[in-house]
């Protein structure tokens, strides 16, 4: 989530210029989750284990459990932000302070940008949620554009009257730091106040599912047991619907960076996030 200087991104070249039939009774997106995510994800998808015993079922039955629910997914940053410093550095009011409209995001040491990671995970997550019956809206339509501003990202969730909104990110901390954390809003005497409690419940559901589904540890450097509360993020401060941020791990940690570059692991992340959202949204 931490931004790199535009000049550094340009120097590193960080601007980012399914097959098979469906098994009966299983949404296609969740079958892709099994195929892409490897043994761990398959084990959560209701497959038979050794000796014919059933493994725990994935939370994606054919009954479309999220029918009627609206989820807004906010893929952090955008692939074209680095070439538009004037636009993304414009200050906007997030109620507790003025902040840049958007940032470039971070990247792995090998040059894999956060914006590309969040876009890929968000598309995977959207497919899974749609297969479970949800109506899904993303705050950006590609990874080649600029923005939108953090104020606009919040407004998209509000205008959609989302039942839940999630902003997907990855952090850029010191290489020795590791693990994920979920960020939730605090009361600020503003529009987010009525949904602070619901956002906390959403955050805990996603935290638990993410830990179980990815095997990544809680952050070793921020928050408490993978949970952090902030009042300086426009995407949270301006939200009138339950909303959280997920920092999926530290892109500057070599081990986690390698996982993030693996499409199968990104699918595991998407399935875990979908399961957390579903746990929160269930009646």
Topology (elements, then pairings):
Layout: H1 6-12, H2 28-43, E1 70-75, H3 85-88, E2 91-93, E3 98-100, H4 114-131, E4 135-138, H5 150-159, E5 164-171, E6 181-185, H6 196-214, E7 227-230, H7 234-237, E8 243-250, H8 254-260, H9 263-281
Helix pairs in contact: 2-4, 2-9, 4-9, 6-9
Verbal overview:
There is one protein chain. This protein is of the alpha/beta class and 283 residues long. Helices cover 37% and strands 14% of the residues. It has 9 helices and 8 strands. Strands 4-1-5-8-6-7 form a 6-stranded mixed β-sheet, sandwiched between helices. A hairpin with a 4-residue loop joins strand 2 and strand 3 (98-100). The longest helix has 19 residues, at 196-214. Residues 4-28 and 31-57 have low confidence and may be disordered.
Alpha-carbon Rg, integer: 18 Å
Work out the strand percent. 5-15%
Q: Please work out how many helical segments DSSP would assign.
A: 9
The average pLDDT is 85
Order of helices and strands: HHEHEEHEHEEHEHEHH
**Strands of the largest sheet, in order across it?**
4-1-5-8-6-7
> Structural class, from secondary structure content?
alpha/beta
Distance between the terminal alpha carbons, to the nearest Å?
Answer: 33 Å
DSSP strand tally: 8
Biggest sheet descriptor: 6 strands, mixed
Query: What is the overall silhouette?
Result: globular
């Amino acid at each position: 989530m931490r931004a790199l200087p535009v000049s550094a991104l340009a120097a590193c070249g960080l601007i980012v210029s399914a097959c098979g039939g469906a098994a009966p009774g299983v949404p296609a997106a969740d079958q892709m989750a099994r195929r892409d995510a490897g043994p761990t994800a398959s084990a959560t998808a209701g497959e038979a284990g050794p000796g014919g015993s059933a493994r725990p079922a994935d939370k994606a039955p054919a009954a479309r459990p999220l029918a009627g629910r609206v989820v807004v997914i906010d893929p952090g940053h955008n692939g074209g932000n680095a070439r538009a410093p004037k636009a993304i550095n414009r200050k906007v009011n997030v109620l507790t302070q003025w902040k840049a409209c958007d940032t470039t995001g971070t990247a792995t040491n090998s040059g894999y940008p956060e914006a590309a990671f969040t876009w890929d995970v968000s598309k995977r997550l959207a497919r899974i949620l749609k297969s479970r019956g949800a109506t899904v809206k993303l705050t950006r339509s590609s990874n080649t554009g600029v923005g939108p501003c953090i104020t606009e990202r919040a407004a998209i969730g509000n205008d959609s009257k989302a039942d839940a909104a999630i902003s997907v990110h990855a952090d850029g901390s010191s290489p020795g730091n590791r693990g994920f954390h979920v960020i939730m809003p605090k009361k600020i005497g503003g529009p987010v106040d009525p949904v602070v409690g619901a956002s906390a419940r959403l955050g805990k559901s996603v935290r638990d599912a993410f830990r179980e589904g990815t095997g990544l540890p809680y952050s070793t450097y921020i928050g408490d047991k993978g949970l952090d509360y902030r009042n300086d993020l426009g995407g949270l401060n301006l939200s009138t619907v339950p909303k959280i941020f997920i920092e999926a791990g530290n892109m500057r940690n070599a081990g986690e960076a390698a996982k993030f570059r693996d499409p199968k692991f990104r699918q595991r992340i998407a399935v875990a996030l979908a399961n957390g959202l579903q746990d929160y949204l269930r009646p």
